[in-house]
Amino acid sequence: MAVYTQVSAEALSRFLTRFDAGELVSAKGIAEGVENSNYLVETTRDRFILTLYEKRVAAADLPFFMALLDHLADKGLPVPPAIKDRQGVEIHELEGRPACLIRFLPGVSVSHPTPAQAQAAAQAMGQMHAALADFTLERPNALGPEGWAPLAERCGKDLDAIAPGLRGDVQKAVDRVLTAWPAGLPRSAIHADLFPDNVLMLGDRVTGVIDFYFACTEVRAYDLAVMHGAWAFDGAGKRFDAEIGTAVINGYAGAFGLSDAERAALPVLAEGAALRFFLTRAWDWLNTPADAMVTRKDPLAYWRRLEFYAAHGSALFA
Amino acid sequence: MAVYTQVSAEALSRFLTRFDAGELVSAKGIAEGVENSNYLVETTRDRFILTLYEKRVAAADLPFFMALLDHLADKGLPVPPAIKDRQGVEIHELEGRPACLIRFLPGVSVSHPTPAQAQAAAQAMGQMHAALADFTLERPNALGPEGWAPLAERCGKDLDAIAPGLRGDVQKAVDRVLTAWPAGLPRSAIHADLFPDNVLMLGDRVTGVIDFYFACTEVRAYDLAVMHGAWAFDGAGKRFDAEIGTAVINGYAGAFGLSDAERAALPVLAEGAALRFFLTRAWDWLNTPADAMVTRKDPLAYWRRLEFYAAHGSALFA
């Protein structure tokens, strides 16, 4: 959420000469996205996002992400593909980092989506899934079900410092979710992190789906489960908004469809999605000094979602 | 250099309705300026910078800064005044902070200015000084000569942890500079921080002078001395670039004029300017943990400038 690598105006001007992108008019470092350095760049022709990939995005994964974005953009979906230079190259190097010049998309991320906005965003997810039916590249989900037990193990007894007895409860939840995890559901490339932050909107219209850096090959309906947990609760996970929840499911089902098997699996998929965000937040929480300038996100906000889904999931998605 | 206060899209949309500024299209938190929160905001009409003032800018000083910017903008200088709302109000409150919607200016800050760029920036300073001749508001210089001895005192013996013997050398330098400090030179509102970061350019043309949050009433030629130290050395203060130094002096003198008395005072003004940045950097250095996420700026980079001016100042500005 900061600019880690400084790019001088001189270096940026030279970089832009590789592209048919016009000449540099303005560049502002922006505080956005995962741990990358981002600049909002304006040229005599257009606006772009310049992204320099820092440690958290592996350079080896960039071809997958860029192919995914190209695939979706080619089918008319509002995603930000990388701009090709005159030689057709998308992934460059700048200031010693992998770097892409990326299409700028208008729109803002809403903090408190309305049901109409949630429905539009879920429709956009359905359209993405439809467009990805013939996308063949694969990327394993580094934060998928196989990773949950080891991550819980690595958090270890420190979990009890977050809440008393949490370690034992987490172990039970991991066991329960993995035991019930569905086999045989359709898999696909998915976004895997479609929080309201990652959807740009103007009014009720989706103008951009961004931040594909967790995209991977996974059970397709898991993407919807992640979105449900991210949109249909308040930040602390204390209040479920049934209207938003329904809008997410209906928006997706209307745009792409949801099979009976997928619908039946949603309770455990939603528990799994909550577990994934709980575990990564718990790990970050336990490994970030309390006085660091990075905001630690409360892991219990996702533990509460997990408990909610465990208690009400079957009724919720019936 | 970060976004300290989050402004939701919903709150920003509501805020914009106070102005004739169009509707919200995009908003990106930008990593810019002193310790304020800044957003680059695009509407259906135009682009703006939204600034929320954090602790480092006193709300009581905002009317001075905004009147100064209005004064300069009214005379056609490329500065970013605050936009007035429909009631004529410039200074608002948003998310509990004083906030201004500010004109967006094109251009980029160069990291390694050429002599032509330095000359153009110094001309812009001269034009500002000319435009400020009839500006009557006053603001004391909180980081002016009266503050240097107390600040050196507060740094105390810790200065010796930056370099052996530094504390004694600093005391001598403060005494020497204050003793030689000129009386009777013309005073004016000045920028007081005209580093290359604070000048936006397109090629050799100045498109913006920004970040007036150190502006104050001070010996006018002190502004030029600050600029000379900021532009005519490499970052570490180890290499003086005579060509840039000459361009700064000539650019300013050509645009506004430099009296014999001012020219004669430049060596001590330049030492004083170097001392001011040395002292504030030393204070920040000694009071910022080495592992903090804020970049500490090496105070010795300004100590070297001070030594350079002490040794060569008389010859330099003759």
Task: Write up what this structure looks like.
The structure is a homodimer of 318-residue chains. Chain A is an alpha+beta fold and 318 residues long. Chain A has two domains: 9-103, 2-Layer Sandwich (Phosphorylase Kinase, domain 1); 115-316, Aminoglycoside 3'-phosphotransferase, Chain: A, domain 2, CATH 3.90.1200. Chain A is built from ten helices and nine strands. Chain A has helices at residues 9-16, 62-74, 115-131, 145-155, 159-162, 166-180, 220-231, 242-255, 260-287, 300-316; strands at residues 24-30, 36-43, 47-53, 92-94, 97-103, 187-190, 199-202, 205-209, 216-219. Chain A has a five-stranded antiparallel beta sheet, with helices on one face. In chain A, helix 4 runs antiparallel to helix 6 (166-180). The longest helix of chain A has 28 residues, at 260-287. The first copy, chain A, is globular, with a radius of gyration of 20 Å. The two termini of chain A are 39 Å apart. The model of chain A has no long low-confidence stretch (mean pLDDT 95). The A-B interface holds A 1-3, 8-10, 12-13, 24-32, 40, 42, 106-112, 200, 202, 292-294 and B 1-3, 8-10, 12-13, 24-32, 40, 42, 106-112, 200, 202, 292-294. Chains A, B: Residues 27-252 form the Aminoglycoside phosphotransferase domain. Chains A, B: Belongs to the pseudomonas-type ThrB family. Chains A, B: It catalyses: L-homoserine + ATP = O-phospho-L-homoserine + ADP + H(+). Chains A, B: GO terms for molecular function: homoserine kinase activity. Chains A, B: This is Homoserine kinase.
